[in-house]
Specification:
Structural class: alpha+beta
Oligomer: single chain
Number of helices: 5
Radius of gyration: 13 Å
Helix content: 55-70%
Shape: globular
Length: about 110
């Protein structure tokens, strides 16, 4: 399921509907440019806290997914820790895909 998520993220990148990098995404959150922000599991605790707090304050959904290496591969760039999705349709689909993955994970744990 994560492979499909990364492929869809790559499609969003090719459609030029993402921004990456901590400073760029921080500015975008403040200007309500993003419909969802993705932060990767191997980001530092301080980075997690910073984006969790910013997204909560500005009411932007935040998803914690995968690793920075997988992200870089999926969007065709070097390693990235955080990505903002600028298109509502892409954002909604990524949220939906992550929700389904979490449901599947919960069912496996039962």
């Amino acid at each position: 399921m994560m492979q499909t998520f990364y492929q869809f993220l790559g499609l969003a990148a090719r459609a030029n509907k993402i921004s990456s990098g901590e400073d760029t995404v921080t500015r975008g959150i403040k200007t309500h440019r993003f419909h969802v922000v993705l932060i990767f599991e191997d980001a530092s605790p301080n980075t997690h806290k910073k984006f969790k707090d910013k997204c909560r304050y500005y009411h932007v959904p935040l998803l914690q997914v995968g690793t920075r290496q997988m992200l870089g591969t999926s969007i065709g760039k070097e390693e990235r820790v955080v990505i903002g999705i600028t298109d509502k349709g892409f954002a909604n689909k990524l949220i939906q895909m992550e929700d389904h993955r979490m449901e599947d994970h919960r069912m496996e744990d039962q």
